[in-house]
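Open question from group meeting: does this chain pack into something compact, or does most of it stay loose? Before anyone orders reagents, we agreed to write out a predicted structure and look at it together. Recording both the input and the output here so the notebook holds the full record.
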Amino acid sequence: MGHLAWPITILALGVVLRRQIGDFLSAIAGRVTGVSVFAVSFELAVATEVSPPWRSRHTDADVRGLVIAQDVNDSYFDSLRQTLLATGSADFIVIDLKSDGRQEWLTSRLSLFTYLLSRLKGVKAVVFVATRGDTSRTFLGIVDASDLVRVLGQQDARLRLAWLQTEAEQVGRLVDDGALGADPLRVPPTVEAAVPLDVDHWWGGVASGTALVDPLYVARRFLSRMQWQPQSPIPPDVPAGWLQLPEAPGRPVTWEHASWIEAAHLTDGFLAPVVRPDDCLVDNSGWSSSDRVRAVASARGEFVALLSPSYRFERLVDRRALLEELGRSSVEAEAKP
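Structure tokens returned:
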């Protein structure tokens, strides 16, 4: 009975305590490696990546950078739109910062697409990579998608405000309830209360297609709240934190409240508290499938990055799913006569 208790505990807690799973997995990893792993397929736990096309098919515009909000539409970025609308889910996205000095991702665009992909595709993790020497996609760390959006919003409150305003525009706004301390407004019984939609339910409708909302429209509305088109004459001293977009004939001068993401932000900057650089394993080509299962089960974190000997990111493994499968397999094995 004692041998059966651990697999059952692994399975039950793995399913119920999904948000608190990290501490639990660390506590049981040593016991899991003693369970037979031959019936578990490692490939079942390999996480799914979503790789949206960020560049326009018709221009050199890159939506990760300084693109005016009105150009984020299906005329310029239809392939991106199709990826966002496609059915199916994904576990993670790779953010490639390239080499030092390259400007690849604005904070506003990282917040925008991390949040959109978490809502529309179920993305849970973000893998940061960069070019180091001759090695591209060198692993830098993993961060939970929700933590990344939160920390970006703490770094720039305008991001949080833009999301709140964009969602409120879709689901409805609360009626002003009066000044702080005043008696609350009461809806008479003869009047139907105007209550905003549930934002999670609305996003579910967008993801399923029942809400009939173009995700690029949501992106435009968000970016329009992060951009500024000052009246002429342009102020001589633009406040810090604003980047000027490339000028174009017939368009007003436009600025965006954002900054470029750098690798240093992950190690010594504002992203360091949430980035996990150690949730990885250097994959051994001599490992059998069961060896690899044991190695990942003994690692840390909900997701584990598998790397080449040069530290190049190869794939991501859902360690939680792997341990749940180990638990199921063990229960079935113990239940056999």
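Observations to bring back to the group:
The chain has a mean pLDDT of 84.
The chain is about 40% helix and 15% strand.
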